[in-house]
Design brief:
The termini are far apart. Strand 15, helix 14 and strand 16 form a beta-alpha-beta unit. It is globular, with a radius of gyration of 24 Å. Strands 1, 2, 3, 4, 5, 6, 7 and 8 form an eight-stranded mixed β-sheet that branches. It is built from 15 helices and 16 strands. It is α/β, with parallel strands linked by helices. The protein has two domains: about 280 residues, SGNH hydrolase (Rossmann fold), CATH 3.40.50.1110; about 250 residues, Rossmann fold. It is about 35% helix and about 15% strand.
């Protein structure tokens, strides 16, 4: 504890020293007012279970552990023992903790003009119905605390003759309200009141609010599924009715890998950094800055009326490639070839449950929204020897569980992916056929949900759920013999779930169906973390899927 405190004091001293040399409001040529963003909420806004020292492990965010001297930052973080900036300082991690404001500030500064400043007030385990209640705050009384912090921070700008404008309010909270029946039922009503009171309080009737989705990839996304759903309904209803409020998806971001079975309820370092990018994208879109999409293929690379073999890849966090970063293979002469755009292989995708969608057919290449890649690159490379026309369609949601893919779905109806998934395949087939190409659907390559293997009830039901998905997909796609290649990495090895032999159950189910191919991906390179695969694991997974397909074809 003493060591952490010393590190924190040293970092703040460095930030103050660096910040003292910057005064962007008085620099020649600076005309725009400072855009002020407010960040507020509970533990996943604080940055719990993250470490600034781990930022270097994630190449797209390298350097964010260093103070951003061009960004002003004022904060009050924590519950009983609060950490306070006591004025404006340079933006940096607080007490070695990573918050979404770090990556948010970097992206917004890079993609839009004008200086920015961030005011942050957050504390873990706080309620909108109580602590943040504008009318009757209880507990840690976060609403009045945040009001005071904002007023004091803006008053300092006034004293320095710095012009500013309130630009956006980033809100990430709701996990604790779902444990209180009344707070959960009233979340939408309470959130609407919260937003209106803030606009009145700050005399900013058009202030934009960005409401962060509660991450369904966490353990709470499974064992508290109905409660998470109830909060999401409240949040979405407010965003739908308020033109200046946006609902920000976050279920596709990385989540901390915990001890034991590996599941967690905090984003951790990677998730926090990606969390900030989501808020930045939502804000930038609100001011007319659109995310850059990869270019559409001007024409398909096939001879007229020639048949096309279509491969569909589907799954969760490892099919997306959550922790496979392009930078980590870009210096390897052999592996970096995978990153090249492959115009001879058309590719379309829907990732993160719709967070990123392709612009029709594109050249196969890296598409991860956080500079990551999936197994489709090595999968395609392994198929290159074929002279056939090939196309790949990829549908993923790393914040989903297997039940979300079933035709029946779950009580969390908005999380049901099956209709989208089938429509995605149908659209891919239809588009190729419309362009004059007969389509041969070669199979669906589905990587079993990683998180499901760590939660007993879901692990138990996984084989039946997958069977239901396979059976109904064949009916809806009018392909009674459609092949399903179901790959499975070693399931979580822990006493809490080891009594459920999911591998044997999946194998038994596949033995009854000649077109259900069970792929045991048990010889992948050794991984540092449970559940997730790094670059080497993702590359080998793609090769393995392709090899299993070729073995059947040959």
């Amino acid at each position: 504890m003493k060591s952490n405190l010393n590190n924190y004091v040293s970092m703040i001293a460095l930030a103050i020293l660096a910040f003292s040399s910057v005064s962007f409001a008085n620099e020649p040529g600076v005309q725009k007012p400072v855009r002020v963003f407010i960040f507020a909420g509970q533990s996943n806004m604080v940055g719990s279970d993250s470490k600034a020292s781990d930022i270097k492990r994630f190449p797209p965010f390298a350097g964010l552990e260093i103070p951003q001297t061009n960004i002003k930052f004022s904060y009050c973080i924590g519950r009983e023992n609060k950490l306070k900036s006591n004025g404006w300082v340079a933006l940096s991690p607080i007490n070695n903790v990573v918050g979404p404001e770090l990556s948010f500030a970097k992206k917004v500064s890079a993609d839009s003009e004008g200086p920015i400043a961030i005011i942050k007030c957050a504390a873990g385990g706080t309620h909108l119905g109580g602590d943040w209640n504008p009318d009757n705050p209880s507990g840690f009384k976060m609403y009045p605390l945040t009001v005071d912090l904002i007023r004091e921070s803006l008053a300092e700008f006034d004293r320095q003759n710095i012009k500013y404008q309130l630009e956006g309010f980033m809100w990430h909270q709701g996990e604790n309200d779902m444990f209180n029946e009344q707070y959960m039922a009233d979340y939408g009503k309470n959130l609407n009141n919260f937003i209106q009171k803030w606009r009145d309080e700050l005399d900013a009737p058009e202030l934009k609010f960005f409401i962060g989705e509660l991450c369904t990839k966490t353990i709470w996304g499974m064992d508290l599924r109905p409660r998470m759903y109830a909060i999401s309904i409240g949040q979405k209803s407010v965003a739908a009715q308020d033109k200046n409020t946006a609902y920000v998806p976050t279920s596709h971001v990385g989540v901390e890998i915990g001890g034991g079975v590996g599941l967690h309820y905090h984003y951790g370092t990677l998730g926090q950094l990606e969390h900030g990018v989501n808020y930045a994208d939502a804000y930038l879109e609100s001011i007319g800055v659109q995310r850059k999409l990869r270019p559409q293929l001007p024409r398909l690379p096939y001879a007229d009326k020639s048949p096309v073999k279509l491969f569909v890849l589907a799954g969760h966090r490892n099919m997306e490639g959550e922790r496979a970063f392009t930078q980590n293979i870009s210096n390897d002469p052999q592996l970096k070839k995978l990153l090249r755009s492959q115009k001879q292989i058309p590719f379309r995708y829907q990732l993160g449950g719709g967070y990123l969608v392709s612009n029709h057919w594109e050249s196969l290449g890296t598409t991860g929204y956080y500079e990551t890649f999936g197994p489709e690159l090595s999968f395609a490379a392994a198929l290159k020897k074929s002279k056939d026309n090939i196309a790949i369609a990829k549908f993923t949601h790393s914040g989903s569980q297997i039940v979300d893919w079933t035709p029946e779905g779950s009580e969390a109806k908005s999380r049901n992916l099956y209709p989208q998934f089938i429509r995605f395949i149908q659209d891919a087939v239809s588009d190729l056929e419309t362009k004059g190409h007969p389509v041969e659907l070669q199979g669906i390559f589905y990587h079993v949900g990683e998180n499901d293997m760590s939660f007993g009830p879901f692990r138990q039901k996984s084989p039946a759920w997958i069977g239901s998905l396979i059976e109904q997909s064949r009916i809806d796609l009018k392909q009674p013999n459609l092949r399903w290649f179901v790959s499975q990495q070693p399931p979580t090895d822990h006493e809490q779930v080891n009594a459920i032999d999911v591998t044997s159950e999946l194998a038994r189910a596949a033995e009854k169906d000649p077109n259900w191919i069970h792929i045991r991906a048990f010889d992948l390179p050794k991984q540092d973390r449970q559940l997730v695969l790094d670059e080497s694991g993702i590359i080998e997974l793609g090769k393995l899927m392709a090899n299993e397909y070729q073995n059947i074809e040959n």
